[in-house]
Amino acid sequence: MIYSEKVMDHFQNPRNVGTIPDADGIGQVGNPVCGDMMTFYVKVKDDRLTDIKFQTFGCGAAIAVSSIVSEMAMGKTLEEAMDITNDKVAEELGGLPKNKLHCSNLGADALHKAIEDYKSRSKPGAKEAAAGAAPEVQEAHDEKCCCPYCDGPLDGMQAVCSCHHCDIELVECPECGKYTNHADETCVSCGAKIAT
Amino acid sequence: MRRVYLDHIAATPLLPGVLEAMLPFLRERFGNPQSLHSDGPAALEAVEEAREMVAGLIRASASEILFTASGSESNNLALKGLALANRNRGTHLVCSAIEHSSVLNSVKSLERLGFTATPVAVDQDGLVNPQDVEKALTKTTTLVSVMLANAEVGTIEPVAEIAKICRVRNVLVHTDAVAAVGNIPVDTRALSVDALSLAGDQFYGPKGGAALYLKKGTRIVPLIEGGIQEGGRRGGTENVAAIVGLGKAAEIAREKMEERTEKARTLRERLIAGLSRTADHVLLTGHRELRLPHHASFCIKFIEGEAMLLNLDMRGIAASSGSACTSKALKASHVLLAMGLDHATAQGSLVFSLIEDNSAEDIDYLLEVFPPIIDRLRKMSPLYTEYLKERRK
After folding, report:
1. Which ipTM did the prediction report?
2. Distances (CA, A) of B311 to A52, A186, B302, B318, B370
């Protein structure tokens, strides 16, 4: 089995699956081009996450990541929840295969987006404006996947492109074809050596 | 727990008779076929017998069979070897968009050497139109490579028609028949191709036993240079046991061809009809009629392949998927995308391919276990929720 026991447990028995119709915040990340899509719904009371639900389209790792993120964040303050990083998620799951690490980014991102959505809605004056607005969905671009480090959108679709958020230049790994940091010696996704 | 193996395209089990035939060559008959002492001829004889068997399966002459270590090697040898041997005649190649990566990457590598290539598109069923191949030919085209059957979607391509067009234009034709040989009747004379790849692990032979059919008189540049093995076209001491296994598997495949295809077709129809009845939003991929008899491939909408495979495996069922999540590089199957499927649909790819041991009960077990898995994954899919919302509008 390519996954740890804990991943398989969360994959088989995912916690907190579903939607919250009157959610205080909704966060959606990913697109089918990259492989996975996650939607997180949160309820907030007195700065604490009182309920979390998610839906995930994706592989075993993506489902397990969503499940454990929901568990890790449940009952936490918003600040604590924003502190949940992809590293912590992967660690909590007993590790993930290298090429599935990006799934842990997605889980933390989706949760953070939902919290940010809540914050923007609860800003004075923003409530009315946000109430009717649908959650922001990343568009699926052909071949244009997301930054392997921050999952943000990428600039350019050639062999070399850049992520403005991380301020790095990305190149296609000759081994697995995924984008990786040009300055790095090895590919973030598969570990192959990158010729510089 | 019940185990149901439905992943023929990944590997087939070794037939007991094949293993029996191989064992002496891993034990007492270990000699090098090229040795002059008496151990040599004993091994060489077995290799040449296997060559006859393989030739017999595809209606070729023994001298037209060249042993290799894998279908990928055969494809590499055909593409690079034929392109390089005909370089002075031209440097343009044509292949279909749904070829195996061993063909596509060989073409890429040839492009770096100065060759040019034209990929030919396929229709929504994965079929290559021979007219499109004809249109792609230029004055400098020397080689066309179109697979006989696609392992991911099961579609059988009109290779004989394509070869007919190419023959008139003096263009060589290679076909990757790895998924086809041993599973459907293949006749190199009727196909009229110059080169054809096959692999024993696709018809109950051992891994490591594969071959390239090369029509008599066809020049090729070897990939592996060494001694005089395989007429100097592929150096390296012969993998005698694997070659013997391939030969035995070919002999059995020829004898049992009709029985195998008939049985596989019946079970396949049971699977396709059954799944269409028990699950909705299920799309059959590949051509409905022109497909491998043991092959049933689908895209299950709104959910992803790896999640399905893991769930099926927990219930003892082995299958394959072309989803991005199941690939190391996290890229969706180029075959499904070439057939015009969008990424989300391609993510739901699932391939069931039957082996000869499968029974009607196996299919019924799959049909009992699989629909609840689909339901469970859809319940947690944001795409399905979205779909339901849209439908309510």
Report:
1. 0.84
2. 25, 33, 16, 10, 9
Q: What are the pLDDT digits (tens) for A131-153?
A: 444 444 443 333 346 666 655 66
- Determine whether the interchain pair A37/B306 forms a contact, defined as Cβ–Cβ distance below 8 Å: no
Strand pairing report for A37-45 and A48-57: antiparallel
Virtual torsion, Cα A13, A19, A25, A28, nearest 10 deg: 70
Condensed to tens digits (0 to 9), the pLDDT of residues A69-78 reads: 999 999 999 9
Is residue B184 a contact partner of residue B293, using CB atoms and an 8 Å limit? Answer: yes
Q: What is the pTM of this model?
A: 0.86
Q: Which domain holds residue B320?
A: 4-10+257-392
> What residues of chain B, 288 to 317, have a C-beta less than 8 Å from chain A?
302-307, 310, 314
Q: Which fold has domain A5-131?
A: Sufe protein. Chain: A (3.90.1010)
- Of all residues in chain A, the one with the smallest CA distance to B302 is A57
Choose among A3, A19, A59: nearest Cβ to B385: A19
Last residue of a domain, one of B253, B283, B303: B253
Q: Tell me: pLDDT of B129 over 90.
A: yes
Question: Can you say how many angstroms the Cα of residue B295 is from the centroid of all Cα atoms in its chain?
Answer: 11
Torsion region of B73: left, alpha or beta (phi above 0 gives left; psi -120 to 50 gives alpha):
alpha
